[in-house]
């Protein structure tokens, strides 16, 4: 294995989540040999000040890693810009990075898997990122190998390389063409039929997401993400506490128990399979109810802006 990829950890105003995630990350077998960069965004609203300060108390006492570098923003940058700028800073220095947010619980060998995958697929220019998450345990039934390729990316514990990251068009200069060209619209839907609608919300200023732009850029270039058939991570932020994740009742536990190692292996040859991608993409749907709900929410946002 070459030099270990640095870990980039993003936090905001959730002290309990932050502490839980850090404790799990410290139990990773490669934690003590890994650099940890922590980026803390400043409070956007007065009600967030106290929790942001509590989070900063936690991150300034972190141990268990080779080195910890903490960056505290003086003013609120925003979710997307904070993540884009933080990753850019680290990846330009180290050439690759593993990214974790403050609600992503990791298995003890998550870092092992991510580092090995980043080493193995760095020269495979079809691949733009590596994920430690899989949303559907059925993938173990249809995939003969532990890993598969999909158009969709995932922001729940992932990694990438400098040449892929710095090649992303964050301004989405193709957006006007996408709106007019059904072929481009359908191209984005290969990773889930919700994708172009999410991009539309981003471009119209209703959401603040780096992830949908990263996906759109990758998909338009016909690039893939490597996924495992068993997850190394669990999102503990689906409780209404996050910026983008609502309160998901009866949230199903992941296929593997976090706290236990996940057995993994790398296929001799990693090939893209349309059937596997379609099954994976079916986890990301955008139906009539979603459209109606989103329109109502957008109208409320517009009314609030006019006041």
How would you describe this protein?
Helices cover 38% and strands 15% of the residues. The chain has 307 residues and is of the alpha/beta class. It has one domain (7-306): Alpha-Beta Complex (Spore Coat Polysaccharide Biosynthesis Protein SpsA, Chain A). An eight-stranded mixed β-sheet has the order 3-2-1-4-8-6-9-7, sandwiched between helices. It has a two-stranded antiparallel ribbon with strand order 5-10. Helix 1 runs parallel beside helix 2 (49-59). Mean pLDDT is 90; it is low at 242-256.
Beta-strand content bin: 15-25%
Strand order within the widest beta sheet? 3-2-1-4-8-6-9-7
- Termini, distance in Å? 57 Å
Main beta-sheet annotation: 8 strands, mixed
Total of domains:
1
Alpha carbon gyration radius: 19 Å
Q: What's the pLDDT, averaged over the residues?
A: 90
Q: What is the general shape?
A: globular
Instruction: Estimate percent helicity.
Output: 25-40%
Number of strands: 10
């Amino acid at each position: 294995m070459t030099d270990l990829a640095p870990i980039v950890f993003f936090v905001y105003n959730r002290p309990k989540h932050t502490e839980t995630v850090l404790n799990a990350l410290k139990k990773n077998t490669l934690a003590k040999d890994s650099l940890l960069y922590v980026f803390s965004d400043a409070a956007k609203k007065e009600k967030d000040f106290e929790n942001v300060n509590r989070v900063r108390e936690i991150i300034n006492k972190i141990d268990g890693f080779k080195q910890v570098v903490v960056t505290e923003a003086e003013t609120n940058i925003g979710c997307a810009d904070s993540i884009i700028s933080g990753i850019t800073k680290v990846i330009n220095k180290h050439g690759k990075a593993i990214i974790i947010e403050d609600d992503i619980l990791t298995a003890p060998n998550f870092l092992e898997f991510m580092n090995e995958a980043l080493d193995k697929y760095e020269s495979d220019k079809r691949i733009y990122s590596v994920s430690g998450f899989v949303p559907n345990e059925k993938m173990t039934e249809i995939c003969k190998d532990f890993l598969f390729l999909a158009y969709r990316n995932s922001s729940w514990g992932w990694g990438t390389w400098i040449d892929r990251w710095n090649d992303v068009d964050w301004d989405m200069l193709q957006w006007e063409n996408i709106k007019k060209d059904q072929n481009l619209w359908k191209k984005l839907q290969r990773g889930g039929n919700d994708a172009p609608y999410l991009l539309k919300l981003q471009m119209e200023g209703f959401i603040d997401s780096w992830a949908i732009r990263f996906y759109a850029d990758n998909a338009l270039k016909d690039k893939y993400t490597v996924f495992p058939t068993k997850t190394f991570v669990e999102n503990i932020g689906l409780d209404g506490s996050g910026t983008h994740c609502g309160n998901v009742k009866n949230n199903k536990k992941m296929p593997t128990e976090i706290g236990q190692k996940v057995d993994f292996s790398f296929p001799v040859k990693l090939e893209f399979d349309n059937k596997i991608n379609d099954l994976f993409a079916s986890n990301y749907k955008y139906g009539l109810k979603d459209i109606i709900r989103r329109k109502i929410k957008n109208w409320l946002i517009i009314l609030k802006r006019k006041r």
